[in-house]
Write a structure and sequence with these properties.
elongated, about 240 residues, mainly beta
Amino acid sequence: MQGIALWLAAGSTLLLGSCAVVGNITQLDDGYYRVVRRSTRDSLAVAIPKQQLYVQQHADTLLLTPNPAPGAPTATYRYTMQPNHRLLLLRRRLDLDVFALPFKVRPPQGGVPVQLNTNFNAAIYVGRRLDFYSLHTKRATPFGATPHIRATGIGYGAFVGMGSTFVSNDVAALRPTTAEYEGLVLHGGLAAIYDAQAFNIGLAIGIDQLMGADGPYWIYRHKPWFGVLFGLDLN
């Protein structure tokens, strides 16, 4: 089990590192964000109220507007991005994705060693996502500085889906099957997601239910497996 965990951790680190470069954007979506407070000389961190702000980006300038109290005038803070100061914004939202599971790792069970299943598997994922945006300017052209935004998203949630698995006498020992075949499985579980803007990857832990007459005799019935999720953001 320790070897499986270390292998998955190493693989996820490599994947996360390779996809981080695609998390750069030039334009924020209009919406509600929260300024993450940290030690900085940036006067904005001191001036803005401790609440969600409606943020609009116009080139290298941000307009940050808090929800006014009843009867109070609307106040908007103007913030110009700078090369030597990074502003960190946080956005929370519901996440809905469709994922493929390239493989599942099943721990030893019933005398069968560790299994690496690469059959078709897909899942619908619903969870909570936290998007962090690090903003500053960067001199990318001879004509001056341009906005530079590094976007990083992480999330957690649950998934359900379906897939296939190879069924034989070895994995249905108490009820020998008449033939080897690809069985239909329904699965569900929990996942942690990294959002690289262009695509999402994550680590999952789940359980399977084999459909059909061999289901009650399947040695992996309701036993945990570990895997990787890969997919596209639907929202």
